[in-house]
Amino acid sequence: MTNHYYSQEPTTEHDFEQWSFELKGKNFQFVTDSGVFSRETVDFGSRVLIDTFNWEELPADGKILDVGCGYGPIGLAIAFASQRFVEMVDINSRAVELAQGNANRNGIKQVDIHQSNIYEAVHEETYAAIVSNPPIRAGKKVVHEILTEAYPRLKSGGTLTIVIQKNKGLLVRKAKWQRPLGMLKSSIKRKGTISSKVSKNNCLIVVFETK
C-alpha cells in the first residue's frame, strides 16, 4: 500500500525526528515522523501563511480552524501569537497525534486537535477564520472542497486564508488555480471579497473575507 501524508492511517515504519524552529517569536520544539508532510522543517508555504495571517480584525467570539494541520506548526503558531482558540484537524491520524504532542511540548493550551476529513468532523458550526496549507497532491477535488465549503462555516467578517506553492502538485499553472477561485466566487454569490498576492518566492496567498 502506498502511503501519503494525506493517508488516513499511515502504515510506514515510524522514524521520529525532533528539532526546533522559531515562529512568531517563539522557539518551537517539534517532533515529526514518517508519513507526515514536511517532516524535516516548517515548509515555506506554512511560514508565509503564519506571517501573513491577520487575526486582529476577526470577529471576537469565534474560534480559528486549521484544516490539514499536519504536525501543527500553523495552528500552534497562530494560537501562541494571537491567544485565540484554534481547532486543528487533519485526516492523517499520525499527524493528529504528533500535533497533540507538540501542543503539549510547547505549552499551547488553547487548541482542540482531532481527526477530520476536511470539515466532516469539525466541532463548531461557524468560525472567525479558517486557515489551510492544503494537500495539493491529494488532488484538486480536495482543494476545491476546502475552498467552496468554507463560506457557510465562516462568521460574518470571518476570513479564509490559504497558501498554494504554485511550483508543486496539481495546481502548478495559474489557469488551474483560477478555476477553484472561480468556483468559490460563484458559490458565495458575491457575499464576500477575495484578494490575493504573490510573494517573491512564488507562493500565492489567497484571503476570502465574508461581508
Note poorly predicted spans.
Answer: 168-177, 183-191, 197-201
As for the CATH topology, it is Rossmann fold
Shape: globular
Number of strand elements: 9
Counting structural domains, the number is: 1
Biggest sheet descriptor: 7 strands, mixed
Q: Report strand %.
A: 25-35%
Given helix and strand content, the structural type is alpha/beta
Helix percentage:
25-40%
Helix-strand topology string: EEHEHEHEEHEHEE
Examine the secondary-structure arrangement and name the CATH architecture.
3-Layer(aba) Sandwich
Strand order in the sheet with the most strands:
5-4-3-6-7-9-8
Q: What is the count of DSSP helices, taking H or I runs of 4+ residues? A: 5
Q: Can you give the mean pLDDT?
A: 80
CATH superfamily: Vaccinia Virus protein VP39
CA distance, first residue to last residue: 45 Å
Radius of gyration, whole Å: 16 Å
The top level CATH class name: Alpha Beta
How do the strands and helices of this protein lay out in sequence?
Blueprint (H helix, E strand, L loop, with lengths): L16 E7 L2 E7 L11 H9 L11 E4 L5 H10 L3 E5 L2 H13 L5 E5 L11 E6 L7 H9 L5 E12 L8 H15 L3 E7 L4 E8 L1
Parallel strand pairs: 3-4, 3-6, 4-5, 6-7
Antiparallel strand pairs: 1-2, 7-9, 8-9
Helix pairs in contact: 1-2, 4-5
Could you describe the 3D structure shown?
There is one protein chain. With 211 residues, the protein is of the alpha/beta class. The protein has one domain (42-210): Vaccinia Virus protein VP39 (Rossmann fold, 3-Layer(aba) Sandwich). Helices cover 27% and strands 29% of the residues.
Task: Briefly summarize what is shown.
Pfam families: MTS. The chain is built from 5 helices and 9 strands.
